[in-house]
Amino acid sequence: MHPRCRTAFRNTNMPRFRSAVILLVATCFFATASSATTVAMYGDFRVQGTFFSKQNYTGWNAAGTQTAETLNIWQRLRLHADFASGEHLAFRLGLRVNNETWGHGTLTAANPSTAVEPYQCYLQFSVPETHITVTAGYQPISLPHTALFYDSVVLGADSGNSDAAALVVSAPLIEERLSATAGYARLVDTNRTFATTPSQVGDELDFAFLTLPVTVPGMQVTPWGAVAILGRSASLPSPLRNTLLSASSFAAPSAFSNNQNTALWAGCALTAELPFPIKVSADGVYGEAFVTDRKQCRRYGWFVDAAVEYTGLTAFAPQLLGWWGSGEDSGLSNGSERLPTINTAWGPRGSFLFNADQDLTQASMNTTPQGSMGLVLNFDRISLLPRLTSMVAFSYATGTNSPSGLRKAVAVTGGPGAYVTMGQDLAEGERLYSVACEHVYALTDAVSLIGELGFARGEGFRSSIWGRRMVNKAGNAWQTALGIIYRF
User: Fold this and answer.
1) Cα–Cα distance, 152 to 21 (Å, whole number)
2) Percent with pLDDT over 90 in the chain
């Protein structure tokens, strides 16, 4: 089965919460009673306190219109139920009490809002008398990437935080050597069954991909390709608009001349274990979108990363990770030169600058990998004391975007934080430094105590891009968190 994922369907009151729990319990009871079906239930519960000073380097939100709370207490619950009928038919249902702060939303004392959400629902089966596996429903979709970089820079599931309704088919082509996975997902359908006018309009974002992982002794290479079709009238959420469109086409769909536009990506992920105790990995991708539309609407670019890990030590694993992404040039009339993406969930292992699969939430500076380059030195899997595992990472990043290009992008999209953000989207000469450490102490086999500490410093922020008010407010960011995770 796929890793955990979630959906956006929401219940709205406590009676629905009780109904969802009763339905799940009843379903599990009757399924368990059937000799043909087995049920496995598992999940995790997490509660944490986080102190975060100078989020976004300013202590404000991205636009500089709100002040961030420095102390929050977060809580979440994930519950999965896997129903299996033999080895060739399975169904997964996932419920969650979503990640929320104490005193707000679900966790409000007097009048709580949404309590339980179904966030995962898909069927997986094998085609009879074949080795073909089909997965249909709301599921995690992640394009190939190497393990030291958390998830894909183009489309990632983000450990189940961002998934899609999709149909995915996998099949071995050469036993233990070559396989293929093809998938189709409808990511956006604004008007659903009926358009808003008698004339047909393009209001969907459809996505298809193909991966061909090749495994040989000591090496795995996974070439892949993907295509997306975007309708001009599709209503995209803001994060997706920022990563897929150019600045010139960001403000209004009327900027597009075509009713339907195509985006294409081609990439490869490689992992190799050398004869001596060193493991290397690398990813590369090129993508372009809206190439047949107006020149100002085009977005195209590339992104590469590479990592080296020394595996000959038992006390810790040193890792060196680096990346480089193409950046904006000085003009907007020829479109954007950054890699177009759907849902970026990329991050170097251990870095405080990126969401890199930290155990706790609110644990990174959310730097944008497109239009940047940098290095991370990470000391992973430090095990000097029994039951305690630690990690320490040092990160550096700088921009590959033209200052003039970012300044014009800010001007045409409504100011800082609308399309690009200070401290996240970096111009040439802007620099970020960070240190992060994470400690995991196993209180029991099921309960872990997590401690995190992060520091980030930004230098060279340009007032000509972000404005004097934002730049003058910038300072060092500090984050510390303590949490408990129970996995069952």
Assistant:
1) 34
2) 78
Residue 393 neighbours by CB under 8 Å, 6+ apart: 348, 349, 350, 351, 352, 376, 377, 378, 379, 434, 435, 436, 437
- Spatial CA neighbour of 462 closest among 432, 426, 434, 433: 426
CA-CA distance, 123 to 126, in Å (whole number)? 10
In the three-class reduction of DSSP (H, G, I as helix; E, B as strand; rest coil), residue 405 is classed as helix
- Which of 270, 260, 206 is CA-nearest to residue 233? 260
Mean pLDDT of the chain: 91
For the chain, what is the total number of helices (H) and then of strands (E)?
6, 19
SS3 266: strand
Task: Report d(CA 458, CA 367) in Å as an integer.
Answer: 11
Residues 438 and 479: their CA atoms lie apart, in Å, by: 11
210 strand-pairing partners? 182, 225
pLDDT tens digit string along 59-76? 999 999 999 999 999 999
* CA-only gyration radius of the chain, Å: 23
Is the Cβ–Cβ distance between 90 and 124 less than 8 Å? Answer: yes
pLDDT bracket for residue 162 (50, 70, 90): confident
Can you list the pairs that 100-108 forms with residues at least 24 positions away whose Cβ atoms lie under 8 Å? Answer: 100/74, 100/75, 100/76, 101/72, 101/73, 101/74, 101/75, 102/72, 102/73, 102/74, 102/75, 107/75
Return d(Cα 92, Cα 84) in angstroms, integer: 9
Residue 16 clears pLDDT 50, i.e. is over it: no
Closest CA relative to residue 345, chosen from 143, 140, 151, 141 = 151
Q: How confident is the model at residue 209 (pLDDT cuts 50, 70, 90)?
A: very high
Q: Which residues contact 148 (CB under 8 A, 6 or more apart)?
A: 281, 307, 309, 319, 321, 348, 349
CA atoms within 13 A of residue 312's CA, in its CB half-sphere: 7
Burial (0-12, 13-18, 19+ Cβ within 10 Å), 431: middle
User: Using 50, 70 and 90 to split pLDDT, how confident is the model at 130?
Assistant: very high
Instruction: Report d(CA 430, CA 96) in Å as an integer.
Output: 40
Burial of 81 (0-12, 13-18, 19+ CB in 10 A): buried
**Encoding tokens for residue 280?**
């290397």
